[in-house]
């Protein structure tokens, strides 16, 4: 039984919606601000693997739905959680909202998961903004948990 708790992070990225959407489905762009390796582009009905080589972590991502320049619905993690990426055209660019929900955890474990998701997706959006607007890879994900 999953809880009805959900996490939401959002950011205005001052770029056209097509560019911002592409940044999330095309690993050649996404690897500049999130994971380091991917088995492919996000496509509806496909299952791909994202890898964070510096942490030795992999995640299998199931792509449930894609509406170009509007929505990407995925499911990933262990235990799995739903993660939706919503794109909305705004006056000054594109508003990206990442929502994750369907958590299996409860109590302290759920709080930890919500905290990790909130922080993690905020970091992803900050990195995406820096990369798309200024061409800078801030190495945020890599530096979030330095090993030495």
From TrEMBL:
Residue ranges of the TM segments: none
Name of the protein: Polyketide cyclase
Source organism, top-level taxon: Bacteria
Similarity field: Belongs to the AHA1 family.
One Pfam family here: AHSA1
Source organism per UniProt: Chryseobacterium phosphatilyticum
Entries under InterPro entries matching the protein: ASHA1/2-like_C (IPR013538), START-like_dom_sf (IPR023393)
Annotated Activator of Hsp90 ATPase homologue 1/2-like C-terminal domain residues: 16-133
């Amino acid at each position: 039984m999953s809880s009805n708790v959900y996490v939401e992070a959002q950011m205005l990225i001052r770029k056209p919606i097509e560019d911002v959407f592409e940044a999330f489905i095309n690993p050649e762009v996404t690897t500049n601000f999130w994971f380091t390796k991917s088995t492919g582009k996000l496509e509806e009905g496909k299952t791909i693997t994202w890898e964070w080589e510096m942490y030795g972590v992999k995640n299998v991502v199931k792509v449930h739905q894609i509406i170009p320049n509007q929505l990407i619905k995925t499911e990933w993690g262990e235990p799995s959680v739903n993660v939706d990426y919503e794109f909305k055209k705004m006056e000054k660019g594109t508003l990206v909202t990442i929502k994750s929900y369907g958590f299996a955890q409860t109590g302290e474990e759920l709080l930890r998961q919500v905290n990790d998701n909130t922080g993690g997706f905020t970091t992803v959006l900050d990195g995406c903004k820096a990369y798309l607007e200024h061409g800078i890879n801030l190495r945020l994900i890599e530096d979030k948990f330095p090993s030495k």
